[in-house]
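Customer ticket, subject: "Can you confirm the structure for TetR/AcrR family transcriptional regulator?"

Message body: Hello, I'm evaluating your service for our small team and ran a test protein. I'd like someone to confirm that this is what the system normally returns, since I don't have a reference to compare against.
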Amino acid sequence: MGVVTSPKQDRSRATRQRLLAAAVACLAERGWAGSTVSVVAERAGVSRGAAQHHFPTREDLFTAAVEYVAEERSTALRALAPEGRAQAVEALVDLYTGDLFRAALHLWVAACDEPQLGARVTELEARVGRETHHIAVALLDADESRPGVRELVQGLLDMARGLGLANLLTDDTARRRKVVTQWTRVLDGALG
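Agent reply: Thanks for trying us out. I re-ran your input and got the following:
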């Protein structure tokens, strides 16, 4: 038997979701400096008062956005269903080229100067990093009991993050495809 919610609770939950999605989109497009509660509220289609009802401070809003980003990235990882190692490598690299990664990056940078954000970002990124690694091992059908395999998978994820960073400044699709193809060959040789 499911939990029964009232229409008011449903609207409140929907407003909260819109605010979190808008916060992530604003971070991805405008960075930390350009992402204020007012800007997020306007993008979400709610009043500043409604935004502050859900998130009394900017830090509350963006701390919750950190959690939202982490959940969305984890959901995206769990949804991957590639056929073969080449598609797995490409899918893992693609996780680092979208708006979720861009928003996460802005949060990482802001966390360097915002102590309230820093602890939460560090904690969530550690959790997401562990989960990403675990899912990558499964997608690649990698046996981590073999020497060097754990480091090889982590190298793939570190490389994917670097490719995502390169893509922030220019469209790096052509070079990224070549790197993904070569890295897949390396993995095929090393993982068997």
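A couple of notes from the result: The longest helix spans residues 115-140. The two ends are 47 Å apart (CA to CA). Feel free to reply with more questions.
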